[in-house]
Specification:
- This protein is of the alpha+beta class.
- The chain is about 45% helix and about 20% strand.
- The protein contains ten helices and ten strands.
- It has a six-stranded antiparallel beta sheet, sandwiched between helices. A two-stranded antiparallel ribbon has the order 1-2.
- Helix 3 packs across helix 4, helix 6 packs antiparallel against helix 10 and helix 7 crosses helix 9.
- The chain starts with 7 loop residues before the first helix and ends with a strand.
Length: about 300
């Protein structure tokens, strides 16, 4: 600060910055990035610390179960790290992680946004943000839609393991809701192949007339897809051209959520750089309770 006094936040950071703790955590990070493990000399070189200092840290971390040493002298992450990782994953609430990204998607598209998980042969909404536009889709958290004719449901169906998907398809009742609803397993499999190729799924008035939707997958830390997010709106606002422009945004949001959930696999396809200006909100319209259809 100009008067020479230290800002309270800076002072607090310095007070709580425990150097020895930071060094120990740095060693754990180094070992987390090495599949073969590292000897003490290599850890000292990478951390920039004396071997004697590194040795003291390694002994303490090993005694606490955070590290283990193999018969070649290499150190690896220990079982205590496994327990911590498992506990962290259990504490990750997909709704909490997803909500900031859902808000961004809702703000940029100005359409209704859903977060969906599978329950048996249905897709269930576990989070929803309404469109700010006067004419919008009516839906509710906890409502379910069929897997075979909803965008989020197709994502959940397509990214199952092959044996699980084949078993479910053999039991699935392909109820027709509109003239656009898929009518056979063969037709559905063709659609699912397109989903995997594009990285997103669509519902073109297949579950309800005048309602269109586009969805993308969310991967978990193990590389499984147990959730999807989607953008839904009335058909007159969701033309094929606009769906193509929204698709990269939905995929981007799904990818960012996936990474926060611990997924570190590769993604394919192009990513959006910006949304076309005509879809950028110029201001939030007053909310009015005019509904189109249940979704």
């Amino acid at each position: 600060m100009r008067d020479g006094t230290e800002a309270p936040l800076t002072s607090a950071i310095r007070e709580y910055n425990i150097i020895s703790l930071q060094r120990g955590l740095r060693m754990l990070q180094l070992l987390a990035g090495s599949h073969r493990g590292l000897p003490a000399a290599e850890i000292a070189k990478l951390s920039g610390l004396p071997v004697s200092t590194v040795h003291r840290f390694l002994v303490n971390l090993e005694s606490g179960g955070f590290l283990s040493r193999d018969n070649t002298g290499n150190y690896h992450l220990g079982v205590a790290c496994v327990f911590l990782g498992a506990a962290a994953r259990e504490q990750l609430d997909i709704r909490t992680v997803s909500l900031p990204h859902l808000h961004i998607l809702n703000h940029r598209t100005r359409e209704t946004v859903h977060l969906t998980v599978r329950h048996h042969a249905s897709a269930v909404y576990i989070e929803k943000l309404d469109s700010p536009q006067p004419l919008r889709i009516h839906s509710r958290i906890g409502a379910s839609v069929p897997l075979h004719c909803s965008a989020g449901g197709k994502i959940l169906l397509d990214y199952m393991s092959e044996p699980e998907r084949d078993k479910l398809l053999s039991q699935l009742e392909l109820q027709r809701f509109t003239e656009n609803t898929v009518g056979s397993i063969q037709e559905l499999q063709t659609q699912l192949a397109r989903v995997r190729k594009n990285g997103y799924a669509s519902d073109l008035e297949e579950h309800e007339l005048h309602v269109r939707c586009i969805a993308a997958p969310i991967w978990d830390h193990a590389g499984g897809v147990n959730a999807s997010l989607s953008v839904t709106g009335p058909a007159f606002r969701m033309s094929s051209a606009r769906l193509r422009e929204i698709a990269p945004l939905v995929r981007q949001a799904g990818m960012e959520i996936s990474r926060e959930l611990g997924y570190d696999g590769a993604f394919t396809g192009s990513l959006p750089t910006s949304l076309p200006s005509r879809y950028k909100p110029s201001g939030i319209l007053p909310l009015r309770r005019k509904k189109v259809a249940s979704k």
